[in-house]
Write a structure and sequence with these properties.
By secondary structure, the protein is of the alpha+beta class. The chain is built from 1 helix and 3 strands; from the N terminus they run ββαβ.
């Protein structure tokens, strides 16, 4: 018996930044299970806080 693993799909042109609506370039997966999508600008702006929160930051 195999155990299924959950993987998040790659970011596409349809994915948008949660702050401004620009194309998403970064997915931040929070330790609580939620996720945020950011454009490059907002990812850089919030990167320090996301790291403090132990978010898994995926660039794509």
């Amino acid at each position: 018996m195999t155990t299924p693993t959950l993987t998040r799909p790659e970011l596409t042109a349809v994915d948008r930044c949660d702050r401004c609506g620009a194309a998403a370039q970064v997915r931040a997966i929070l330790s609580t299970g939620g996720e945020l999508l950011f454009c490059g600008h907002h990812a850089r702006e919030h990167e320090t806080k996301l790291k403090e929160m132990a978010a898994d930051i995926q660039r794509g």
